[in-house]
């Protein structure tokens, strides 16, 4: 099986979203996890990269050794006025950046296929800052399906017997230090049924032909966000919407659990948290 490993976006930071905090240690730690649990255990694997962190170009190339890559200064996108922000207004630009970067790296993959007259058996698109704890052996998966990670819900029963919800990072680091039982529910979809429903978007993998249908979400963002339930941008909802629109939803399968097996690196390592999740 020949696989394209397609990294997109920012390297990630140690202090929350938007790449805040230093990138050096996040890059080193994330690469070690990817190297051990993906890169070194799959034969015939090619790496493609689109990245916004131009200052890290040489280091990223030295670590990942991509066959094609592109590093760009961050673009400030022209976002339609009908797009609503959730919390930080910069998040809308982040969503446009995410899907632009995804488009660029998947286009590199497709151009390479065309130039060499072949198709990858498996294409995985993923963010840089994941701490993979479980080996990902692509030969074990049927690539006629489209795989994303499980989304999970974390909670405990308080003294009032009411359910108290936890952030994923709180669950992971509190579960060995408290004397009451934490609950961990494995789910596929996140959110309630209906318009708030979404999928984990930290990675997906499938065969190359299916990836072609996902590649250009960026081109449709302005139109998608005219829909009432997509107006407040969410990549979780956008990915689900795209699978429904392209009739790939019946091919959807879940593999690996977010946090336990493929957490965002800053969530995984307590030293990056600086105590802010444990007040």
Automatic annotation (TrEMBL):
- This one is known as Uncharacterized protein
Top-down, what is the taxonomic lineage of the species of origin?
unclassified sequences, metagenomes, ecological metagenomes
